[in-house]
Write a structure and sequence with these properties.
By secondary structure, the protein is α/β, with parallel strands linked by helices. It has 22 helices and 10 strands. It has helices at about 5-10, 20-30, 35-70, 75-120, 125-130, 135-175, 175-185, 185-225, 225-235, 235-290, 295-335, 420-425, 460-465, 490-495, 510-515, 520-530, 535-540, 560-570, 590-600, 615-620, 635-645, 645-655, and strands at about 360-365, 435-440, 445-450, 475-480, 480, 495-500, 575-580, 605-610, 620-625, 630-635. The strands form 2 sheets. The protein has a 6-stranded mixed sheet, with helices on both faces. Strands 2-1-4-5 form a 4-stranded antiparallel sheet, with helices on one face.
């Protein structure tokens, strides 16, 4: 009997051949250690199951050689009942074994997922901006499941096949040693057929998965709200239908080819098995005619032969199965072993009674990427993440490549070479250093407004305050303490941040608000909502605070989402407030409500605001004018106008019209 896992293991083994080291094995086994008694129970069940499987052929031999010739009715009934009881017993053992196996497998999945998720919670923003979400999901799902297979399936399967093979060979040698040797000699044919046909089937299966990924990526791009809108606006419905028809046809054709290859694969393996069976029955029949052994013996031997071929083939494919599982474990361990960009010192102090003084002391920051702190690229067959060009699926429109084979780009700083070309254009904000020599002090309760051209480094500066990134050089202090000397949780509690792109969970308004304070009472929730000018709107909704906001808050307008975000920060009640006051895309009513809410939110707090409105600038205690990562001007509104520099230009082009 052919084990289906054999050919599949060839298909999924890929081109990755990990080195199975002693350290890797010990680390893998460490995840099985908490489940040692379940694994021990499985081994007992395997032994019992193997023993039960050896009994049936012996019963058939006894029936044929003794009971039927002697016409012993009583023994016939007994043996028939035994044949009925053995499957029941085997089934019960199988259920128990499966129960223990599932407990181990699901337990390992749980342990790995929790460990990975907890690790990811402490990774820096830099990690997430350089890592695809799909890759993280694959590590948490596909690789975790693949890893647990090493413990609950692969290792168990290897042990099972070893026990079955040894037991079967022992019994078969007892029955007839010459037939046993002849049976084993057929094994090389199994291995050759499995390896050669398995490679062809594996490659076809990979191609089928990639074609499916292309088709699914096309559906994902054109059937979401943004894609569907674009298709309709440009009148490309017919073109997209034709394009999808072509991809679906490719999937259909490769599916037919895969089905035919699969059937051919099993047919050839069946023929190889038939060769061994024919030889055994032919020679066995010859010995029966000579009277060397009985008909019952050859029947029992044939039954054992079928089990032996299945076990031997399982052992033949075991190295591939095991190395495949090790690939999954290596991917899981790679993520678990990634160093943190933002480390918390062991003796970090907890911030208490925060006053809100914030000091930047000659801070410089570069968006450098340390490849050792990122995940390696993984080719995942059938993953939509590997579909780089969803519509064209070609490289012809991606632009020229550089001499070293890298894709050229007009955006972002160069990794090597001079930046003189970038500096030639005085209006460009492209540069190698995101922030350079930033120094300022925000006293408790002060409002600091950040203004400057787009790309000047304002948002980057605000990201350093809650330690989403750490400065490359310089020090940031809160109440006199270096941010690196305080615990991350207490720092997070002291700082409230509302970004320009408001993010809401696909849940109720209440859940999104209480994310800032899990134990908030209804009165506190409503007070925060009133302060953010969103309470009346919520009360007009059918479900009020239990209204589902939709994916990323899609059911709400931009102004409504921003006011909920403000209410969330108010509920947190931080001493330092960081706001990207983005109101340019809102209607006048929403903008007025948010401006009124901002006054309440910032009252009595140290506020760092990326200012988009003149009213905020006029209320600021200090205005920092940024350009190309530097603070080029600082002062009050009147002082900066008197300088007649960059701020005066921005005032004339962006803010002055608000006075009209």
């Amino acid at each position: 009997m052919w084990h289906g896992g054999g050919w599949f293991s060839y298909m999924r083994s890929g081109d990755q051949k990990p080195k199975v080291t002693r350290e890797l094995l010990l680390r893998v086994l460490s995840y099985a250690r908490p489940y040692w008694w379940q694994i021990s129970g499985m081994l007992v069940m395997i032994l019992l199951s193997t023993g039960v499987s050896l009994i049936s052929p012996l019963i058939f031999r006894t029936m044929i050689d003794q009971v039927l010739p002697q016409k012993d009715f009583n023994r016939l009934v007994t043996l028939a009942l035994a044949l009925l009881f053995l499957p029941i017993l085997s089934g019960g053992i199988s259920v128990l074994q499966r129960r223990l196996n599932a407990a181990v497998g699901e337990g390992v999945i749980y342990d790995l997922r929790v460990a990975l998720f907890s690790r990811l919670q402490r990774m820096s923003l830099r990690f997430f901006t350089n890592t695809k979400v799909g890759e993280l999901m694959s590590r948490l799902n596909n690789d975790v499941v693949g890893a647990q297979n090493a413990i609950s399936n692969t290792i168990v399967g290897i042990v099972t096949n070893i026990i079955e093979t040894v037991a079967l060979l022992a019994v078969m040698l007892t029955l007839e040693w010459r037939l046993t040797i002849l049976s084993v000699l057929v094994l090389p044919l199994f291995i050759i057929a499995a390896s050669r046909l398995g490679i062809t089937l594996r490659d076809t299966a990979r191609k089928a998965m990639d074609l499916n990924a292309q088709m699914n990526a096309h559906m994902n791009e054109t059937l979401n709200i943004g894609g569907a809108l674009l298709v309709k606006l440009f009148g490309r419905a017919k073109d997209e239908s034709n394009r999808f028809s072509q991809r679906a046809a490719n999937v259909r054709d490769i599916g037919v080819r895969r089905a035919v290859l699969g059937s051919t694969f099993f047919m050839i393996l069946g023929l190889v098995s038939a060769v061994g069976t024919a030889l055994v029955y032919g020679l066995g029949g010859y010995y029966v005619i000579l009277g060397t052994f009985t008909i019952g013996t050859i029947v029992a031997f044939g039954a054992y032969l079928e089990q032996l071929y299945g076990s031997l083939q399982g052992l033949a494919s075991a190295p591939v199965d095991f190395s495949t599982s090790m690939v999954s474990f290596e991917r899981v361990f790679e993520l678990l072993d990634l160093p943190h960009d933002i480390e918390e010192k062991k003796d970090a102090m907890e911030l208490k009674d925060v006053k809100g003084e914030l000091v930047f002391d000659n801070v410089t920051f570069r968006y450098t990427v340390d490849e050792d702190k990122l995940l390696s690229e993984v080719k995942r067959y059938g993953s939509m993440d590997n579909v780089t060009a969803v519509l064209s699926l070609t490289d012809k429109d991606r632009g020229p490549k550089t001499e070293d084979g890298q894709q050229s780009t007009a955006y972002g700083p160069r990794r090597n070479g001079s930046s003189s070309d970038l500096e030639a254009d005085s209006t460009s904000q492209a540069r190698e250093v995101a922030l350079e020599g930033i120094s300022f002090k925000a006293s408790p309760g002060q409002l600091i407004a950040l203004v400057g051209p787009s790309g000047a480094g304002k948002t980057t500066l605000t990201y350093l305050i809650p330690r989403l990134y750490d400065p490359t050089d310089g020090v940031i202090r809160i109440d006199g303490h270096d941010l690196k000397d305080v615990t991350l949780d207490s720092l997070s509690s002291a700082i409230g941040m509302v970004t320009q792109e408001t993010y809401l969970f696909h849940d109720t308004i209440r859940t999104n608000l209480t994310y800032a304070k899990m134990d908030a009472t209804q009165a506190e929730i409503e007070a925060a909502a009133k302060a953010a000018n969103i309470h009346n709107f919520i009360m007009d909704l059918p479900e009020r605070y239990d209204t589902i906001v939709g994916e990323r808050g899609y059911r709400l307008s931009g102004g409504e989402k921003q006011r909920i975000a403000l209410a969330r920060v108010i509920l947190k009640d931080p001493r330092i407030l960081v706001l990207d006051e983005a109101t340019s895309h809102l209607d006048s009513e929403s903008e007025a409500l948010i401006q009124d809410a901002l006054k309440r939110v910032m009252a009595g707090r140290t506020s760092i605001v990326i200012a988009h409105r003149l009213s905020t600038i006029l209320a600021a205690d200090l205005i920092l004018v940024m350009d190309r990562g530097r603070i080029v001007e600082r002062g009050t509104h009147d002082e900066l106008l008197a300088i007649n520099g960059l701020y005066a230009q921005l005032y004339e082009t962006q803010f002055k019209r608000e006075r009209v």
